[in-house]
Amino acid sequence: MKRFGKTLLICFVVIAILATLLTGCSHKIGNELLVNGNFESMNQDTKTLENWSFVYVNKDGSKNSEKSFQAEKPLVGSNEAEFGDRYISITTEDYATAYLKTSVKLYSGQKYLLSVTFNVKKKITTESGDNDAIGGYFGFLEDKNFQEINAYDSNGWITRNIYFKPTSTAKYTFVAGIGREDLGGGSGTIAFDNISIKAVKEVPVGTNTAKLTPGSSVSDKEVGGIVYTVLLCLFGAALVIGAYYVIRILQKKSNYIDSAPLFDDDNDGIVKDEDKTATDVKVKKSFKEFFELNNLKTTLLSPIALFIYTLVGAFLIRFILIMTVFGMGDTMTEYAGIALDIAKEGPSKLYGVHSNSLPTGYLYVLSLFGLIGNALDFTEKSIGMSMLIRIPNIIADLAVCYMIYKMIASNYNHKYSAVIAGVYALLPAAFTASVSWGLNMSISIAFLVAAINFMIEKKHVFVPIMYTLALMFSNAMLIALPVIIGYEIFFCVKDRKAILPIVIASVASFVVFYCLFIPFATEYFAPNSKPSGVFLVFSKMLENIKANNLISNSSFNFYAIFGLGNNASSVAMIILIALVMILFVIFGVYLFSKTRNRLDYILLLAMSFILWSVFGVGSRVEFTLVGVVLLLLYAGLKMERRVFRVFGILSITNFVNTAVILTKSGAINFAFLDGTGLSHLYKLDPLYIIGSLITVGTVIYLLWVMYDIMANGVEKEIKPMPDNLLMEFKEDFDYNKNRVIKLLQRKK
Fold it and tell me: What predicted TM-score, i.e. pTM, was given to this entire model?
């Protein structure tokens, strides 16, 4: 144990040092950072600019794919000759928004110079006539308070410079055009060229330096979110603690371990002496008898009835939140646009209109709701479309509740299984994520739990099928791949008759996974198409993974403690984290070789997601949620009290993590309706640090619990409720006090 603890501590110290070194980067002074800022690189066939994408949004929020920018030729003999072969001109009508956008990675603390040359050829007007409203805009989407370059009129071509300094290392979205979706549009024409962003060593004396602060767009819309966070945090703690003691009470029942009948007798299975006869035979009640007056109370308070009430409650909570929370803001709007465009233009046109890397399964779901949305005349920003897209999340959550109930009821009685399933149904971390930003992750969790169900039942053929479906809705399910492959290999070695069915099911799943993507890739099968349609599905998966190049932008994690959570990751750091995860896979194989218990696959899967969320590159808050759900299932099946307590802590910190992001984004106060996106956790505030410390400490403890269970075979079952609970508290307090005293009295 001492050697294990020291080794673990050394590993964390090494990771901390390497993380600090690998993220301490900056740009070289004077190097141009904006690719194709002079707009000289242009595809003549598609009329698209390299590294830039164009967006045109009508006043009502609908996107117009027929509009585009104009590539203008400089007039001979004018001062436009310095602009090369072309400059860009954008025209808007009826107070629309139109802009070109691109990404640029900037480092915290580094000073930069933004330079733009523009000419307002037709004066830009706003609907309100307010001179402070947005006109010709050159700035960043991540911070609408940024001191951007803004213009309504000009006397010919002029050049403006602005010095700025980011407060966080991140990949930022630079936009150039007229208006912005979250701030408003305008009518007019603006031309621009030679946009440049360079790192500088010093800022001239007397020159103002603007601050670029991601996530600072909402500052006065957080009151409702704070109330929501505090109340549901208390409710979540009460739910977990209450469930723990209900389980302990249930353990005192004599029929707790056996599969009890659906409707228990009033005497809890205890047969009195006067009732014992040699000819007693239990007669199963008919459906009609359950609802007779003398049986009605038993029926309405039966375990299955209580479980149904829980499902109804879970549905109502999620449905109310769907109606009151818009969702992921501008991301939800983008998804709604994709859905409507697929239904209108067909799947093969998707990537020509929307540059996205959404998983295949979710594209099919969006296609379905696009058809419904078009039939109901929904727009991209309508509440109805936002609600429609999130309906599958509710269905997926209820399916997870049922599967948890079913798996636990097969080992214990219905009352106990209803309690565990009810915890998930009412867990704030689960329903808050699923109705706000969980989206395709909720469906992936359902398929992953289904795969686990088949693991437990030894139905090996269905495991790769369910896993493939989970992967089709979230690329994050790649985290589970080593455990799934390990499971299949183990049973192929253990039972040679299973080899052929497992191989056939795995290959068939892969083929179906590939074929289902073909409708979206047909226009990319041409020989000169890049990437080729043959590999487009895999290139899109890679694109999705590479898009999040930050160490973490949304979760309580190890790096946040040192202020590194939102720094851009380097290749060296990715290799380092990959090596750590490989070591965990080896460690997991070693532990499983000790027990060979199928239930331990659940614990390994849970740890895979939790470790990646806390220590991995590109970690996200929903990764922890996947692990939390699996911890609840494992704790319920094994009745392991240490795992159940860890589940409780992580479920609360994960909810706080999620709720803080939604609060800072103004989601609880309907601020998403103005197009604002989710704010990331960029600042080193006390809550971020404390939440990360608690999360990391809990995960380190969970690593030890996993080792103790799988290597040492030590399982600490949830104890039955004692006759005197106060006496138990006193004994536990004395025991822990004595342990602390002995620890302090130990000699060096």
Answer: 0.72
